[in-house]
Specification:
The complex is a heterodimer of chains A (204) and B (328). Chain A is an all-alpha fold. Chain A has helices at 7-16, 28-33, 38-61, 71-93, 95-101, 103-106, 112-122, 127-157, 179-196; strands at residues 159-160, 163-164. In chain A, strands 1-2 form a two-stranded antiparallel ribbon. Chain B has 328 residues and is α+β, with helices and mostly antiparallel strands. Chain B is globular and about 90 Å long. Chain B starts with 16 loop residues before the first helix and ends in a 19-residue tail after the last helix. Classes of the chains: A mainly alpha (204), B alpha+beta (328).
Chain lengths: 204, 328
Amino acid sequence: MAKKASAKDLILDPVFNNNPIALQILGICSALAVTTRMDKAFVMSIAVIFVTALSNASVAFIRNRIPNSIRIIVQMTIIASLVILVDQFLKAFSYGLSKELAVFVGLIITNCIVMGRAEGFAMQNTVRDSFLDGIGNGLGYSMILIVVAFFRELFGAGKLFGSQVLPSWYEPNGLMLLSPSAFFIIGFAIWALRTWKIDQVEEA
Amino acid sequence: MQPENENTEAKFDKDSIGNVFITALSVCLVCSFLVAGAAVSLKSWQDANKKRDIMTNIVRVAGIEDRDIDEVGSIEAFFKEPAEGDAKDRLYIKDILIDLETGESAVETARQFLGLDESVDEKEVIASYDQYKAANDNRKDKDGKFIYAKRLDKSNDIAGLAKIERISHVYLLQDAEGNVKKYIFPVRGKGLWSVLYGFLSVEPDFQTISGLTYYTHGETPGLGGEVDNPAWKKQWTIKENRKGEMVGKQIFGDDGEVKISVVKGKAQDDFSVDGLAGATITSNGVTNMLEFWFGSNGFKAYIEKQQQTGSSGDTASKAGSEGVVDNG
C-alpha cells in the first residue's frame, strides 16, 4: 500500500523526478509536431493537463466498478470523450489554433501518457490523488513541450509567441522547423535532466 | 488499516455479466451526453468561426494583405458596401448569386429555396444562401428534375461531386465605383480521402489566375495536405516579373478548353503547376476540379456572359468569343 502522497509531491514529482517524456519516454509523437511554435505547444499543454487530470479523476471515481474485461475500453471511452470536448472548445473559441493543431488534438487520445496514468495510477488510487497525478504528469509533459518549442521557435523563426525576438540579421535555422530537431532537443533535455538528477541514469 | 471509504457491498461482483452491461451502458450514456451537450451548446460559436474563416480565405485569395485589412478594420468590414464618404478606390467584396446554367443573377430563385418572402432584403438572401446545402436538396419539379440541384452523369462528373447546386456564390473584389478587380469563385472537388473546398481568384480577363486556397479538406498531412503549403500556394499567386508585368497561371488554352493542370514533377509553363510529391490523386483532384468549375457545368456560362456584356464599368474584359481571351 503506497504511502499517502502529499499534493505537492503528486503535482511536482512528474515534472523533474519522474517526467513522462524524459524518464518514462511516453508521449513523444505530439512533442515533435506541435512544438514548432510556443503558442501551439502552450495550447497543447493545457489540453493534455486537462484531459489527463479529468480522465484520471473519472477513472479513479469508478475504479471499483469497472469490470476487468472492458477495463481498457472504458478508460478509452472516457479519454476520447474528454478529448472531443477539448476539440469542440478549441473550435469554438480558438478556431485559428484548432486548425493549426489539426489532428494532434485528436491524437491526445493515443497519447501514452494519458492511458498510461489511467491504467497505472488511477485504477489503484483515490480520486483526489489521481486528479493531482494527472495534473502533475500533464505539467511534466508541458515542461518538455515548452522547452522544445522555445528553442525551435527561437532558432527556427527568430520569434517567440509570434513576435520577432532575434534581430533581422538572424537567418532562421530551417532544421529547427523539421521534426528531427525536436528529437535532438528532447535528447539534450534528457541529458541535462540526468546530469542534474543522477539517480535517473539507468544501469548500463 | 484505513477504513474503506466506499460502501462494502460484500457480494458486489464487478466482473459479473450484469455489471459489464450496466457499466458499459452508463459510461456510454454519460460520455454521449457530455460530448453531444458540448457540441450543441458550442455550435453557434463554431459556426461563426467557420464563416469568418471562409471570409478570411476569400479576402486572402483576392490578394488582400494584412495591412489592408487593418486599414478597413476587420474582415467583416471588407464585405460591407462602401459608404458615402469612402475613398473611390476603396476595395470591398461583393457577394452575388448566379445561376450556373445561364450565368444570370439568381437571387429570386435563392429566395424561393430559402423560403423567404419579398420583405427580406436581397443582401440577406445572398448572405443566407448556402450552396452546399442546396447541392443536397431533393425538391423536384413536376418533370422530376431537381429544382435547386443538378445530378451529374459519369461523363460530366469530372470532380467527383455527383450532385451540385444550380445557384452558386461568386465574390467580386471591386472598388466603390463598381470596377471589378478580381473574381473569386468557390471551387471544390474530390481528392483522395475527401472533398477539398476552396476559392480560386481570377483576374478580370478571366484567363489569369490570381490565387488559389483551400479552407477545408481531409487529405493526408504531408502528402495531399501540402495543398496548404505556402510554397505550393505561391505558384498560383499572380506576381510581378522582372519587367514589371503581372504574370500568373493561365486557365484556358487557345482552343478555349481548360488547360491549367497540376503536372507530375515540375511545372513547364504558365498552364501548369508543380505536382505534389507522393500525392498523385490529390494533384489530379485539383486539376479535375478546375477543369470542372471552368467548364460548362461550372462558371463557363457566367464568364461568357461577363465577357460579352462586360461587368459594370470593367474595362479589362473585351467582348470576345466563348472562352478564348485575346492575348493581344
